[in-house]
Amino acid sequence: MRYVWFVIFISFTLLAYGQNSAKVKQLEKQRKQALEEIEMTNKLLQETEKSSRSSLNRLNLLSQQILSRKKVISLLNQEITALDQQIVDARKEIQILQKELEGKRANYSKSVQGLYKRRTSQDRLLFILSADNFAQSLRRMRYLREYAEWQKRQANEIVDKQKEITQKQRELENTRSEKNTLLGEREQENKKLQGEEQNQKKEVAELNKKRKNLQAELQKKRKQADALNKQIEKQIAEEIARAEAEAKAARERERLAREKAAAAGSSAPAPVREERVADSKGGYAMTKEEKKLSDDFGNNRGKLPFPVAGRYTIVSRFGEQQHQELKYVRTNNNGIDIQTTPGTDARAVFNGEVTRVFVVPGYNNSVIVRHGNYLTVYSNLSQVYVKAGDKVSTRQPIGKIFTDTEDGNATILHFQLWKEKVKQNPLPWLD
């Protein structure tokens, strides 16, 4: 029974060690992703010149940089904690293996001592011949043979167990070394964070000096955002009305056809029509094909590709946001703003149909793509590669993102996602 509990204890120790090891690898992967975000933001900061218009954008980039840096430090702390646990588990495992080794050595020592007492072949022969009967002699012969094999296995197991302990001790040393490396990296990241926080304070001080200009610029941006929102809502309302009108017209044609057939005494079936049905009252009436597309889009929540290829950083998130550093700056974003490098294309996040291409001051060209009763909006394009009525596929380029040379070469895509008449936070939908 004690042996059974011993085996169970070993199994749980090995399982815990394996889980901690997998956790460390996952944390390391997340840390590398966060470092890639920092690298991208650094590049954008270098490309974004300091100017009165780009200062707020630079501050947003710095704020994002600091958040990413804190995330890296947090992940490093989690990695170090996991490695500490891994070291504890490894020590326990080595202790267990050493106890096993001691037990095997003790058993082997006893067997060797016993063999020494019966060291001659004559003794073994007498042991066999002194049996009461032939069957007992055979059993004694089998016992001696199995005993010899057991001794051989014990010797091999002792050697293997010693090798296993040596390997575990080597892994423990590697884990300790890895922990020391991470401690060094954490110290470096903390120093970088302190430097970035100092730069942020300088940017805040400069912006506070230009408070009136900044507030005027923000007011202008709010009006432009309202204008974009009205255009989108107008387009949605028109499409809903058009789809409903088509559904009514189809129902009327079918009614007239039935009346005509009845008047003629014909038993011919009513003409088949493609029925449009909305998911909700007042919603967009969809055909069967559009309904399938809508369902596919909904099933891909959290898996949609980002609407830009290559590296990017999010400089403004969905909804009403109070700026952390500038208390007088409060924004309300209907989507997300994604900053990337000059020359980058915007791309469709899913299969769909372009329903409108239009221009709004401050957002340049905008494209609306319908995916059943979902819509995605791509704004601030300098060039558009598609037109209304075009079918687009996932990741297809739909336009080049505008680069503002007067605003530090800022290249920012404004992206929105709607379901019917309701704005959605795009981030949970994107992979």
What's the arrangement of secondary structure elements?
Blueprint: H1 2-47, H2 55-117, H3 121-129, H4 134-209, H5 211-263, E1 277-278, E2 285-286, H6 288-299, E3 313-316, E4 319-322, E5 330-333, E6 336-340, E7 345-347, E8 352-360, E9 364-371, E10 374-384, E11 391-392, E12 397-401, E13 403-404, E14 410-419, E15 422-424
Antiparallel strand pairs: 1-2, 3-6, 4-5, 6-14, 7-12, 8-9, 8-11, 9-10, 10-12, 10-14, 13-14, 14-15
On the 0 to 100 scale, the average pLDDT is 80
What gyration radius follows from the Cα positions, in whole Å? 37 Å
Number of strands: 15
Q: What amount of the residues lies in strands?
A: 15-25%
* Main sheet summary: 11 strands, antiparallel
Q: Order of helices and strands, N to C? A: HHHHHEEHEEEEEEEEEEEEE
- The helix tally amounts to 6
Considering DSSP H and I runs of 4 or more, what fraction of the residues is helical?
A: 55-70%
Estimated structural class: alpha+beta
Cα-to-Cα separation, first versus last residue: 51 Å
Q: What is the overall shape?
A: flat
What does this protein structure show overall?
- With 431 residues, the protein is of the alpha+beta class.
- 60% of the residues lie in helices and 17% in strands.
- Strands 3, 6, 7, 8, 9, 10, 11, 12, 13, 14 and 15 form an eleven-stranded antiparallel beta sheet that branches.
- A hairpin with a 2-residue loop joins β9 and β10 (374-384).
- α1 packs antiparallel against α2, α2 (55-117) runs antiparallel to α4 and α3 crosses α4.
- The two termini are 51 Å apart.
- The model is unreliable at 1-9 (pLDDT under 50).
